[in-house]
Design a protein that fits this description.
8 helices; mainly alpha; elongated; 3 strands
Length: 300
């Protein structure tokens, strides 16, 4: 026997934060603009490290664009054809960004290895100036993002990302100083490889996490067995929780279907609502489809 659920937490569309969205957009425009300056400047001064840092800024611009799109798309309501709205587009975009970045990293590595075997002169002074402006740019963007709502996942992730960018700019500045005062050119491809590794690790994680969600794997931070045991312990009238499926439409929209055995007295709408409310409050599961099944209980 089963009862159709009468209440859900249909919280598929979060309330868009206009202030956060505006800050994200400003940061994305600034980052994308200086990304071009750094890449073109890197090619001009013949510095692969500077080009690599520019590519790193491109990853930031794409990440910020995805974050902005997340705020924008959250305002679109679900419809008859897209019943959960368009939030999964964020995950698809993240996967495409991550995969593209891995290809770019491969190109940077090939260029750096080639530079080791065929060293070329790098304009250290000009490299220093461009990298210094890049550092100031990163600090300004960090300040803009940090002034946003740090309780929001999109904003917090973008802010933390720019801490890594600042370190990358510092590394390029250090390389420019070494080249200017010592003339040791291998520092340029070495730094480009370091930056490529930083980008590659982030891109790999992005691909892995987004692919996991696209394949409807259990979201990070959730354990099905723990939830099952918690339900059976907290609700003494549930004797067996099974057929559990847990996935996410987006990072903050976790879905769950499950079956649960109980006695005839608890086959009702009140039980359904109580369990769903508990899952929402204790486990951050936003949409629950629960099927209650009868179980004959013998009372001595």
């Amino acid at each position: 026997m089963s009862v159709q659920p009468v209440s859900h937490h249909h919280n598929h569309i979060g309330k868009a934060n206009k202030s956060n969205q505006r800050k994200i957009l400003i940061a994305a425009v600034i980052t994308a603009s200086y990304m071009l300056v750094e890449i073109i400047g890197g090619l001009w001064v013949n510095s692969i490290a500077l080009v690599a840092d520019g590519v790193h800024m491109m990853t930031d611009a794409m990440a910020l664009a995805v974050a902005w799109w997340g705020y924008h798309i959250a305002q679109k309501p679900a419809n008859a054809r897209m019943t959960f709205g368009y939030q999964r587009f964020q995950i698809l975009t993240a996967f495409i960004n991550g995969f593209t970045l891995l290809l770019i990293v491969g190109g940077i590595v090939i260029m750096a290895i080639h530079r080791f075997f065929e060293p070329q002169e790098v304009m250290g002074k000009e490299m220093f100036v461009i990298a210094l402006i890049g550092l100031l740019n990163n600090l300004f963007v960090f300040w803009i993002l940090h002034s946003g709502d740090q309780h929001n996942m999109n904003m917090r992730g973008a802010t933390l990302h720019f801490l890594g960018d600042t370190l990358g700019s510092v590394a390029v500045i250090a390389g420019a100083i070494v080249i200017y005062y010592t003339g040791w050119m291998p520092i340029d491809p070495i730094l480009s490889l370091v930056i490529a590794i930083i980008i590659g690790v982030g891109a790999y994680r992005l691909c892995k996490e987004s692919a996991h969600l696209l394949l409807e794997g259990v979201p990070a931070g959730y354990e099905i067995q723990d939830i099952k045991e918690d339900l059976e312990t907290h609700f003494d009238y549930l004797t067996c929780v099974h057929h559990i499926h847990l996935w996410a439409i987006a990072e903050d929209q976790v879905m769950m279907t499950l079956h649960a055995k109980t006695d005839l007295l608890h086959i009702n709408d009140e039980t359904l609502s109580e369990i769903k409310q508990y899952l929402f409050e204790q486990h951050r599961i936003h949409h629950v489809t629960l099927q209650l099944e009868t179980e004959v209980i013998v009372i001595d």
